[in-house]
Specification:
By secondary structure, the protein is mostly helical. It has 15 helices and no strands. It has a single domain (about 15-200, about 210-405), classed as MFS general substrate transporter like domains (Growth Hormone, Chain: A, Up-down Bundle). α1 runs antiparallel to α2, α2 packs antiparallel against α13 and α10 packs across α12.
Length: about 425
């Protein structure tokens, strides 16, 4: 799909490919927000067990790690567009099987775990493929790279803002299991729109080595880049600290403190509102921000709200705390993605982005399982204080890390 500048005509520079990709992402992410709230709530109300809720979260993360690490090479082989469409269709079938079985022959807990595992395993290569599509679609549509990434983050933030309250309302009106039908439909819509809007994949030359060598190419590239390697370590530690927050900690906090799925939706929406506002602002001025200060500042903004949540405050304070965390994510995510896209060759995007995602996720299953157990043994307050302390140490490490001095003063993305 990569094209020489001279080959980009006025017709090719239309915004349709970018709008189609962003819209498909928005619908798919909105459906995923429904699932992210519906499944843990379903487990909590049917079993009353925080440990089982953590186990379901574990079964969503483990296949993500496997698929991200092994699937990146598959994305580069199959093609970004083809993999995105195929993964959406298969993931939609896995999600649809949950309510189908529940309303017919019954859904045992091990079967639910298996379907969650399968749906995530299929979904992650599709997400990697869409991430790899962004730079070429941005160039094709005449959009500066950092603005495309901020728009992508804005789409995700919009889904985080709108999805949880709608999911909470839908659970009340339709029932928890029926909400999953909406997610299955969103996968189908995403597949059709990407098939129609995004140009076909370019011909690919045969790989020089075997599949194992291709899988390892992503890690080899990251290992040779000190800056990307340091940022990847920072992201992995941060993800370990906050990974239990949405699937385990906040559902338990909302059930114990407020007793309502709609209140949980409002708390999630606070995060989405902060992330959406920050991503819109970043799209306008992000290329002017000093990157090193941006990374350290966002680490601090992720840390302080955890100490506030540890006091189990009112609903308004919970929403505000999540909004601050959303602002941090709305800035750091597009900044990081732009930096990776600037430094990773187009032919390695699937492998490098897949390896990056796998590395970030690799510690999170332990965090998920520990969160459920620690809530029951030590209590919610202690866990939140521990999460905050971990992120505070990460913030200090980022501030003194010499590798981050290699960050350029501002974005180097190309102009449209």
């Amino acid at each position: 799909m990569t094209m020489e500048p001279s080959a980009i005509t006025a017709t090719q520079a239309s915004r349709w490919p970018a709008l189609g990709l962003l819209t498909a992402n928005a619908v798919s992410l909105l459906g995923s927000e429904f699932t992210s709230l519906a499944i843990p709530w379903f487990v909590l109300v049917t079993t009353g067990s925080a440990a089982k809720t953590g186990l379901v979260a574990f079964f969503r993360v483990v296949p993500a790690i496997l698929a991200a690490f092994m699937g990146g090479a598959l994305v580069d082989r199959v093609g970004n567009k083809r993999m995105s469409v195929l993964a959406d269709l298969l993931s939609g079938l896995a999600v649809a099987a949950v309510p189908l079985l529940y309303h017919t022959v019954g859904l045992a807990f091990p079967t639910l775990l298996a379907l969650v595992f399968l749906g995530t395993l299929l979904d992650v290569p599709g997400g990697t493929a869409r991430t790899a599509l962004f730079p070429d679609v941005a160039a094709l549509s005449g959009i500066r790279l950092e603005r495309m990434n901020s728009a992508t983050q804005g789409v995700q933030s919009f889904a985080s803002l709108l999805g949880p309250p709608l999911a909470g309302l839908a659970i009340v009106v339709l029932g928890t299991s029926n909400v999953l039908w909406l997610d299955a439909a969103s996968f189908a819509f995403s597949a059709v729109l990407i098939a129609r809007a995004v140009p076909r994949d370019p011909p690919r030359s045969a790989a020089a080595g075997g599949y194992r060598d291709e899988v390892l190419d992503g890690w080899r590239f990251l290992r040779g880049d000190r800056l990307l390697r340091s940022l990847l370590a920072l992201a992995a530690i941060t993800n370990l600290a906050i990974s239990p927050l949405f699937p385990v900690v906040l559902p338990v906090l909302a059930r114990e403190r407020f007793g309502s799925a709609q209140d949980l939706g409002f708390i999630f929406a606070g995060f989405g509102a902060g992330a959406l506002a920050a991503s819109l602002a970043y799209g306008a001025i992000g290329h002017r921000l000093p990157r090193r200060l941006t990374y350290v500042g966002t680490c601090l903004a992720l840390t302080l709200p955890l100490f506030a949540l540890a006091t189990v405050p009112s609903l308004l304070v919970c929403v505000a705390a999540l909004a601050v965390m959303g602002v941090a994510i709305g800035i750091v995510n597009p900044a990081t993605m732009t930096l990776f896209q600037e430094r990773v060759p187009a032919e390695l995007r699937g492998r490098v982005f897949g390896t990056t995602l796998a590395t970030v996720l690799v510690a999170t299953p332990l965090g998920m399982l520990l969160a459920g157990s620690l809530i029951q043994t030590l209590g919610l307050h202690t866990l939140l204080f521990a999460m905050g302390a971990c992120l505070l140490a990460t913030t200090v490490a980022a501030a003194i890390n010499p590798a981050l001095r290699e960050l350029p003063a501002a974005e180097q993305g190309c102009q449209p």
